[in-house]
Q: What sequence folds into this?
């Protein structure tokens, strides 16, 4: 794969069975697990198109022939793993975290960055307990690493000990975004690592969305900035100035610092509780 | 929870099979019925498989026919699809998609393989004739406009930029590879790749969670 973006493009074509045979082989041999998971998820989007085709009744002989074949055909050994290389990851469920409204078109460079982020959205969703632990340790690591940038070291402790602590998380090829938040405390901690670098003047903006995906708050998050060495390692952003009571989902876009509304389709994280 | 009246029926003859009867009894909706039938079929029960076939074949046959535009080929491919479903039933993993989706993905791959095989047999060079592409294009366009009976899919497609819908549907319903699409539309391959990815992302977002139901 020439670059991550190519691999992701190929995942799209692969999921629609639109690769030529040699490209297909290359994808199966070389794509990472994230791309394969993404392809599996996009194949389900394709299946939605397929299932929308008006039904047709086949001739009765089709079933007769089939059942005759079935009677003579053994099934695969259930202990043999299925081919789609991949993970035990379940497809993301529910419509909650999906962007439902149009945000308008975005400049190409921004769209490209959003695309990378959308991959992150495609592969998140793991065992919640493990996720909680990982998020907590990622945030703690970020906190100790970048203590000077943190507004108050006790914020994370307060969030993680809150009874209503919630998580949202995504990761792909080393780029991770974790949000841990407590609505009752109105506090959120966001850790990012290895975010794709952004052009001068652009920031990753976290949008707090209610259940109808209206923006109820926002803040820029660290990561991906050039020249400050922040795009390597873990960055931490804490938020204490937001009303989190109606937050149902998080979206991220690439914006100018003073953006008041998302200009592209946000990459969605969703709260898991 | 006991459901007294069911919208989904099972042929009388097979409901005498206790496994089929249980699959039906324990299902609260069609989605669960398909899951139960698949699980039962994966243990080698042909009666359960037959019920599964009855439930799924109209959609699958409809799709395969749309892609192949040839009734005889559509019958053959549909039969291959369900034989593969039978063989691979033990590998079906419900956490990776609903039964209907899983079967649809298999059907799509087999239908596209057949389209490609027919193309390479009929064409000496890789260039697709303009007339042939025009025909495929119109077929895909009419499929999208008139051949889909799902309002939310229609609505979602209408909110995705046209240039992205074009490449996604040419690939999905036309069975065309990205390189053929690029060549026929006269745009760079990279552009087609990007449109395909953006189109899928947008479509997924516009469809919400519905793409995995049923």
A:
């Amino acid at each position: 794969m020439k670059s991550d973006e190519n691999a992701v493009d190929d995942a799209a074509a692969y999921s629609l069975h639109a690769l030529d045979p040699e490209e297909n082989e290359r994808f199966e041999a070389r794509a990472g697990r994230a791309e394969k998971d993404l392809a599996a998820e996009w194949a389900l989007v394709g299946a939605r198109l397929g299932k929308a085709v008006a039904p047709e009744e086949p001739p009765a002989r089709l079933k007769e022939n089939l059942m005759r074949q079935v009677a003579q055909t053994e099934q695969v050994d259930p202990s043999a793993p299925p081919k789609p290389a991949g993970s035990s990851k379940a497809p993301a469920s529910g419509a909650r975290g999906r962007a439902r409204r149009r945000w308008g078109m975005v400049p190409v460079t921004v769209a490209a960055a959003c695309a990378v982020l959308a991959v992150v959205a495609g592969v998140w969703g793991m065992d919640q307990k493990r996720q909680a632990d990982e998020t907590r340790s990622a945030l703690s690591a970020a906190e100790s690493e970048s203590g000077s940038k943190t507004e108050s070291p006790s914020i994370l402790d307060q969030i993680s000990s809150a009874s209503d602590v919630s998580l949202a998380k995504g990761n792909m090829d080393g780029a991770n975004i974790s949000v841990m938040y407590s609505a009752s405390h109105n506090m959120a901690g966001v850790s990012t690592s290895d975010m794709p670098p952004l052009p001068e003047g652009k920031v990753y903006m976290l949008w707090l969305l209610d259940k109808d995906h209206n923006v109820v708050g926002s803040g820029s998050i660290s990561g991906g900035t050039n020249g400050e060495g922040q795009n390597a390692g873990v960055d931490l952003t804490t938020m204490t100035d937001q009303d989190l009571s109606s937050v149902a989902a998080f979206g991220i876009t690439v914006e100018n610092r003073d953006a008041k509304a998302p200009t592209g389709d946000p990459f969605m994280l969703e709260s898991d509780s | 929870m006991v459901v007294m009246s069911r919208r989904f029926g099972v042929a009388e003859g097979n409901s005498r099979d206790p496994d089929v009867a249980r699959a039906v009894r324990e299902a609260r909706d069609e989605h669960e019925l398909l899951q139960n039938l698949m699980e039962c079929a994966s243990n080698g029960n042909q009666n359960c498989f037959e019920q599964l076939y009855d439930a799924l074949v109209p959609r699958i046959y409809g799709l395969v026919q749309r892609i192949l535009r040839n009734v005889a080929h559509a019958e053959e491919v549909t039969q291959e699809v369900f034989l593969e479903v039978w063989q691979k039933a033990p590998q079906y993993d419900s956490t990776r998609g609903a039964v209907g989706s899983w079967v649809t993905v298999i059907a799509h791959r087999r239908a596209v393989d057949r389209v490609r095989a027919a193309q390479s047999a009929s064409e000496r060079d890789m260039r697709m004739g303009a007339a042939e592409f025009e025909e495929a294009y119109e077929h895909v366009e009419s499929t999208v406009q008139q051949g889909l009976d799902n309002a939310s899919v229609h609505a979602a497609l209408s909110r995705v930029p046209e240039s992205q819908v074009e490449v996604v549907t040419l690939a999905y319903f036309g069975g065309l590879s990205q390189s053929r699409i690029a060549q026929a539309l006269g745009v760079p391959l990279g552009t087609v790749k990007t449109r395909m990815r953006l189109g899928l992302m947008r479509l997924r977002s516009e469809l919400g969670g519905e793409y995995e139901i049923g």
Notes: Residues 108-270 of chain A form one domain. Residues 83-129, 147-153, 226-232 of chain A have pLDDT under 50 and may be disordered. The helical segments of chain A are 4-15, 21-30, 33-51, 60-71, 108-123, 128-145, 154-161. The first strand of chain A starts at residue 165 and ends at 172.
